């Protein structure tokens, strides 16, 4: 069955009238939470969009099979136990007593059906490609078979949010994108596209230790200044994507708190190897040497950390020997050796949705590369045109934003570097930043190594090879900053996730 059609309506412009209307919400009961978000707040019938920026909506409505715990490790959520039958065959058991918003019980058949729907999506095909099959065995058990031993299977299963097969295949629900039935702690009560999405508590939610929040109202407010104004005027209780320059002002308000999640946003530059200059290792190394990413991180403040690799400090695969390498003199020498001493031009695809201080990075990159006679020409593109530029390899460079969380280093490496034997030609083929056999073999070896210590060593060596080949330009990791009213008790908020989770959140008044 094809994926159910979903309504795709972009958020309407937020005006001052919205802030006036929000004022009426201040009279709401203490157990109502109002969230001002930088993103659209559209509920999905099936979770097939995994953008961490807006995925908090999905976690209100759905539970994944696995989820990051408070320590940042992937832990069971809807799964209670599993049994390894062979290196390519694992049986899983679901938690009993879990019900959907419709009242239907969660079964292994729902998991199988959900997997069939999302694995058919082109943008998720690579994510689930190592999985040969996912089949229900009985009411609560299902079996996963993989094409090869696959160490990241648990991490991939964390992207499956079981949906209600019985509810969605009922004729009366097939035409309405408002009809959502998940197992999450909240359910949709009202949806006005571009204006507000309202959620109410799922009274039959399976967790006993839960939030005292009864209703959540999510309001899309794209402009940062308006989000912050809404918070300071107490029209909203929590806002995301707080600009760095507001932190000091927020800290002076004794009724507001500033928090950061452990999930990190990663900014880097991917290189199009179809450009003859970028196919030259000396040129790639020169690009890395010409960009002072420590300076970029300092400009962004204490919430940014200069990056030298795919892994985050603290992850098992992090290679501490890989240091920042800004050196203008050596960059000039390498370009001269490569025959580009007179310089050349490069285009760079940049998403228009780049937020706040991150957008300032582009002008600094232009200035830094100009010092080595490289003329960088940014191309600011809508999200749709940006993705098209990435897929078609039409830009020399791509400013890439990715979300780093536990266990997905190999996933990022695969997306960036693994060709799986598909040829690259001028006429087409996969658009990857860089590919060679050694790096491809290391990615596959890491994915197939089930021993955690051995896998960490493989990843560290992979990071070293990528670093030496200068196959991309890492810029920085940036923690996500949130601000919220102190009426919200944040002790139980899971900040290891890229976004706060609310099933145990407590409102104090």
UniProtKB/TrEMBL annotation:
InterPro entries: Peptide/Ni-bd, SBP_5, SBP_5_dom
GO cellular component: ATP-binding cassette (ABC) transporter complex; outer membrane-bounded periplasmic space
Solute-binding protein family domain span: 74-416
Origin: domain of life: Bacteria
Any one Gene Ontology molecular-function term assigned to this protein's record: peptide transmembrane transporter activity
Keyword list, A-Z: Signal, Transport
Keyword Signal set for record: yes
Entry's Gene Ontology BP terms: peptide transport
Keyword field contains Signal: yes
Annotated Pfam families: SBP_bac_5
Record-stated family: Belongs to the bacterial solute-binding protein 5 family.
Protein name, per record: Periplasmic peptide-binding protein
């Amino acid at each position: 069955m094809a994926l159910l059609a979903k309504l795709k309506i972009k958020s309407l412009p937020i005006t001052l009238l919205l802030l006036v209307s929000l004022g009426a919400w201040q009279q709401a009961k203490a157990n109502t939470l109002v969230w001002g978000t930088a993103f659209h707040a559209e509920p999905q019938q099936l979770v097939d969009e995994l953008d961490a920026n807006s995925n908090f909506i999905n976690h209100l409505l759905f539970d994944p099979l696995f989820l990051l715990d408070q320590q940042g490790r992937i832990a069971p959520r809807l799964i209670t136990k599993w049994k390894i039958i062979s290196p390519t065959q694992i049986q899983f058991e679901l938690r009993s007593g879990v019900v959907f918003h419709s009242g239907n019980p969660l079964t292994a058949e729902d998991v199988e059906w959900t997997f069939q729907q999302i694995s058919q999506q082109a943008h998720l095909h690579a994510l689930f490609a190592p999985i040969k099959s996912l089949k229900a065995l009985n009411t609560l058990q299902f079996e996963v078979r993989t094409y090869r031993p696959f160490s990241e299977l648990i991490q991939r299963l964390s992207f499956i949010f079981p949906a209600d097969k019985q509810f969605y295949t009922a004729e009366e629900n097939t035409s309405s994108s408002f009809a959502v039935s998940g197992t999450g702690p909240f359910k949709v009560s009202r949806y006005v596209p571009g204006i507000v999405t309202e959620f109410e508590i799922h009274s039959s939610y399976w967790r006993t230790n839960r939030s005292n929040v009864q209703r959540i109202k999510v309001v899309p407010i794209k402009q940062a200044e308006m989000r912050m104004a809404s918070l300071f005027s107490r029209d909203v209780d929590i806002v995301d994507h707080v600009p760095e320059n507001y932190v000091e002002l927020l800290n002076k308000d004794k009724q507001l708190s500033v928090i950061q999640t452990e999930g990190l946003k990663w900014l880097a530059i991917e290189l199009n190897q179809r450009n003859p200059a970028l196919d030259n290792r000396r040129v790639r190394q020169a690009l890395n040497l010409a960009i002072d990413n420590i300076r970029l991180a300092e400009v962004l403040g204490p919430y940014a950390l200069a990056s030298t690799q795919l892994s985050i400090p603290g992850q098992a695969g992090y290679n501490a020997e890989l240091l920042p390498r800004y050196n203008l003199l050596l960059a000039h020498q390498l370009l001269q050796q490569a025959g580009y001493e007179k310089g050349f031009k490069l285009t760079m695809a940049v998403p228009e949705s780049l937020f706040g201080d991150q957008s300032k990075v582009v002008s600094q990159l232009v200035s830094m590369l100009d010092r080595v006679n490289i003329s960088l020409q940014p191309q600011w593109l809508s999200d749709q045109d940006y993705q098209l530029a990435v897929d078609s390899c039409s830009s020399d460079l791509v400013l890439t934003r990715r979300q780093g969380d536990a266990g997905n280093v190999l996933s990022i490496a695969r997306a960036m570097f693994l060709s799986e034997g598909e040829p690259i030609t001028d006429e087409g083929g996969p658009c990857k930043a860089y590919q060679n056999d050694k790096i491809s073999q290391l990615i596959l070896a890491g994915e197939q190594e089930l021993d955690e210590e051995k896998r960490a060593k493989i990843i560290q060596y992979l990071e070293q090879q990528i670093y030496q080949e200068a196959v991309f330009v890492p810029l920085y990791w940036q923690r996500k900053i949130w601000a919220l009213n102190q009426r919200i008790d944040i002790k139980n908020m899971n900040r290891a996730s890229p976004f706060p989770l609310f099933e145990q959140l407590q409102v104090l008044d």
